[in-house]
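Dear colleagues,

As part of the handover before I leave the project, I'm documenting each prediction I ran so the next person doesn't have to rerun anything. This entry is a single chain, and its sequence is reproduced below.
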Amino acid sequence: MNEIDDELKSSFQTQETLEPNFWPLNKKLRPSIRKRLIQIAKDFYDSLEIDADLKDVTFTGSLANYNWSKHSDIDLHLIVDYNDVGGDIELVKDYFNAKKSLWNRTHDIFIDGFEVEVYVQDENEPHTSTGVYSIMEDEWLIEPDRVEAKLEWDDITKKTESLMDQIDRAALLFKQKKYEDALNYIAKLKEKIRKFRKAGLDSVGEFSSENIAFKVLRRNNYLEKLNTLKHMAYDKLMSKTSDGLITISISESVKKWKEFIKK
């Protein structure tokens, strides 16, 4: 049975201070880090190839708050008005998500040991984070308060283990060579997880059981496992077998999960 160990639970404890390498005592972002993040944001923005103005670049997530840990990422949000890009907002969103996934998949950028994750945020999208820092203005938009989070671990564990079990079921379909079934199941599961997290953020906020369960899945590599399964199932489904035709190779990032899935 899947379980959440104590070490993983302890990573959600509230810290006494903001991450000291990022935030000196005056709570200003360290200038050298700010400069680097501005350059990364500019490079990513240029890759989008859009005419819409860049309204702001924000630093958010746990590293802009007191709930940071060694598992945290640098959440770098580029703020644009989706309406300035095109009339079909859903199409614009899909385009940005595809660009984000490609960038994050092909770049491994770390600052002081924390990975940089980029995201294009609609200017009109409400943000649930309690800590948001403007990189462009070099000031807090929402300054975080140190609050001891009261996490419902019984509920979080129940929700997390249910999702882990479903991801393991996707792996079983792959092992059984039911690649099309696996792809369909994974697509539904990814959408379920997205809605699951959003519901928690909308109703309670970043300390909701749903959002913490999502973060547990990310920290114990189950989300990576799900994404890898998706790529592997697709490659297998699209590859030819013993008829002598060309077989599509699987990337190194996918191969590392083969042994994991065989367990």
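The CA atoms of residues 79 and 253 lie 30 Å apart. Residues 244-256 have pLDDT under 50 and may be disordered.

All the best with the project,
I.
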